[in-house]
Amino acid sequence: MDFKYLIVDSADGIAKVTINKPKSLNALNSELLKELNACFHALDEDEAVDVVVVTGEGKAFVAGADISEMQPLAAAEAYAFAKLGMDTFMLIEHMSKPVIAAVNGFALGGGCELALACDIRIASEKAVFGQPEVGLGITPGFGGTQRLARTVGVGIAKELIYTAKNIKADRAYEIGLVNKVVAPEELDDAAMEMAKTIAGNAKLAVSYAKAAIVDGIQADIHTGMDIEKSAFSLCFATEDQKEGMKAFLEKRGAEFKGQ
Q: How far is CA 139 from CA 10, 15, 75, 117, 147, in A?
């Protein structure tokens, strides 16, 4: 895959997507959002990819959406821009493969929203998170009002969005926004290690589990339980379930084939 603003490397079932627009701190414009959409569509369909890691080049993960592109927009144009960002991040959230955000620096506005769309967030000690939109006269537009509240709770989400204040990595960990904080030089290894651990498990089971979590969290508990029962039962139609349980009983490592 060839992109203007993305570098994609794949090996051993893991794809690493690096947003490579460092002069603008990887700010999200329409062109970059369309590239992300095309990239994640392709990765979701690539049977050789089990897990995706996304990060940013330079000092930022993504420092926000491109203000110069947004500033002159009329309301209808702003709606279309928000839809493009939301559609792209919904694709990431609902794709069949886990996505790990390796947050290396600024994750503000659209950058925080991109991280929230990922399944797991690992942050460098230098990472900074925030939703500064109300300080610019707008609201979050790529899912921030919805995913942030679902991730850290309504009260803290309101505080972060209403005050437009940024928080450092240690505070992001305290409120549950990130799963782990590591030294900057350890970020890539930490993300890849987690990706390898996930990739070593049954591919279909991981995919079904992701769907059950993502879909179930939006539903009432009874509907969520029905979703889980369906995911659980689907596993028993796979070769990996037979192999995984047989390997356990035989006290050996399982050899999953993703079937």
A: 36, 32, 13, 17, 14
Tokens 């079937």 — which residue?
Answer: 259
Over residues 72-89, mean pLDDT: 98
Catalytic residue among 31, 125, 133, 159: 133
Host H or E run for residue 96? none
pLDDT digits (tens, 9 = 90+) for 11-54: 999 999 999 999 999 999 999 999 999 999 999 999 999 999 99
Give 187: exposed, middle or buried? Use CB within 10 Å, 0-12, 13-18, 19+. Answer: buried
Residue whose token pair is 């095309």: 38
Residues 101-115 have pLDDT tens digits of 999 999 999 999 999
String of DSSP letters for 97-139: S-EEEEE-SEEETHHHHHHHHSSEEEEETT-EEE--GGGGT--
185 counts as catalytic? no
Residues 6 or more apart whose CB falls under 8 angstroms from that of 59 comprise 22, 25, 104, 105, 106
**Residue 93 annotated in active site:** no
- With b meaning 16 or more CB within 10 Å and e meaning fewer, what string describes 57-87? bbebbbbbbbeeebeeeeeeeeeebbebbbe
User: What pTM was computed for the model?
Assistant: 0.96
Instruction: Out of 113, 174, 185, 243, pick the active-site residue.
Output: 113
Nearest by Cα to 157 from 167, 221, 123: 167
